[in-house]
Amino acid sequence: DQQVKQNSPSLSVQEGRISILNCDYTNSMFDYFLWYKKYPAEGPTFLISISSIKDKNEDGRFTVFLNKSAKHLSLHIVPSQPGDSAVYFCSSLTGTASKLTFGTGTRLQVTL
Amino acid sequence: ETGVTQSPTHLIKTRGQQVTLRCSSQSGHNTVSWYQQALGQGPQFIFQYYREEENGRGNFPPRFSGLQFPNYSSELNVNALELDDSALYLCASSSQGRPEAFFGQGTRLTVV
Does the distance separating the beta carbons of A32 and B56 come in below 8 Å? Predict the structure, then answer.
């Protein structure tokens, strides 16, 4: 079974700087990784995904890097903005049932 | 285009009771998944429905059941509620062949 680990429960970054959120996984059998952002009292919002055959995907201020040999991926946000303050979840997508396996999340706070 | 909507937003039930949560999927999406998010954790996959049939199930007991209707809306039913069922229940809709799932705002269930 896939396990997704986000070992940093929280991260504080100054506005305008780069935010780097990290994620590790245990099982190489996956189709995609997806990052979601969650504000309090709202459902998770899809941010960006990366397929298993790529090592980088970029969308505006968001870039995800995938290092398959290290079983590690990271989400870079640059420049960070106060509105980026939220909990970020890393998730893997596996199999025909499109089951998402989530990490425990990292709370990002972007300070002025 | 309408997003994923869930009802009710909050619910309080007594241990042993039964509950039904509802979800309307995003326009054009034919797949619905349900997740349970306990406090401080990432969402956990309960099950998925595609074309009105269960298409994958997570590690949840049979008292968690569901339905998908011809208009792709869905219900999650939980029988014999336990205190540990207190959580945020999230519905997500997606299209077959696309990795990203789009979440509703969730139903906060409290079992007392």
Answer: no
